[in-house]
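Listing S7. Sequence submitted for prediction.
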Amino acid sequence: MNANANGPRVCTHRARTRRSRSQPGLRNPCDGHLAPWADPVTGTLGWTVLTGSRDLAATVAAISNGKPRPHKERQWHARIPETDLTVIVTDADPAALRCRLGSQPDSGVLAVAVVPWTTGTVLKCPVTDLPAPGTLSVRDVRVTTRMGRTVRYLIPRFTPS
């Protein structure tokens, strides 16, 4: 997501996807979104993928012997109950990392949102070293506010191999 000059945040993924659909022959810059996830009951950390492609959702779900599930109209979602994923990060900007799954590099490009964190917090190598293979992991950070509430942050982190 990027801050717009008029104030609200807009998703750059959607704008890029629309533009690429209007130009036949160009591949979408990202085929889905990869985000950290925690099971609400057990607290187990993992990843969730949201995509418009049932095939990509099935490929991702197969990593953990799961099944893709319909999410909303023309969207699919799959969960991976593993904290560490082997990926190839192909590109990074202040809003997102773009990566491919290490086990299925031809399956598609997934965007990992960096916001509200900085690229330096998530990416543990210089941007000039990309593309780079490595491990994408989830860090669980809990902060207690002055009012006594515990706030949980799931922070993605890429470590090159």
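Caption to Listing S7: primary sequence and predicted structure tokens for the chain studied. Residues 12-22 form the longest helix (11 residues). Residues 2-160 form one domain.
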